[in-house]
Amino acid sequence: MFLHAFALFAQVGAVASSPDKSTIAFSYSHDYSPDAKFYLSVGNEKAGPYEYCYQITFSPNGKKIAYVIKKSGQYYLVCNQNQYGPYESINDIAFSEDGNSYAYITSTEYFKDYILHIGDFQTEIYDFIIDLKFYNNNLTYTAVKNGLYYNMIVLDDKEFVGKYVNGNFIYIKDGKIIKE
Asked: Whose CA is closest to 12, among 36, 32, 29?
């Protein structure tokens, strides 16, 4: 029956399932034309139309969903019906373990000037950002600036060079190494 449902669409884009596999989310279009409109289906709910819809991400507890849409040539992050943007590009979405926090990466151009967003906080501009991971509801990531790679942590809306190691955050604050 599930595979039969996909046969009703001309295009199926991104597909994701909730962590407990009880809900499937997918983007789809009814035609192949260059200006085809895409919709998002989550369980029995539908959203759209959009120019495109991708990067569908469920929170670990399955209660929240975030995804990227394209409208009027700009990209927006949608998380539980809240819309953020516009941005020129959105890459990677990550949720905290409890699903209360989420982060996403934007860039001003494709592969240029990356900024990490966590709620109302945003990092400085980097050449590249990868490896978003939440530990104990604090975010770690790798940032590249001027060809150098930095392991970074965001704690209490402040950015530090550091890493999560063996259950501890180890980071540099005011020239000192801190272990929490």
From this structure: 29
> What is the torsion angle, in degrees rounded to the nearest 10, for the CA atoms of residue 110, residue 114, residue 116 and residue 119?
-70
Please, which pLDDT band fits residue 3 given cuts at 50, 70 and 90? very low
Question: CB–CB of 105/91 below 8 Å?
Answer: yes
* Distance separating alpha carbons of residues 138 and 91, to the nearest angstrom: 19
pTM: 0.87
Place of tokens 């959203």: 47
| CA distances for 113 relative to 68, 137, 146, 177, angstroms | 19, 26, 11, 29
What tens digit of pLDDT does each residue of 114-140 get? 999 998 899 999 999 999 999 988 999
In this structure, the number of other CB atoms found within 10 A of the CB of residue 154 comes to: 22
Q: What count of Cα atoms within 13 Å lies in the side-chain half-sphere of residue 36?
A: 17
Identify the three-state secondary structure at position 5: helix
Residues contacting 30, CB < 8 A, separation 6+: 9, 10, 36, 37
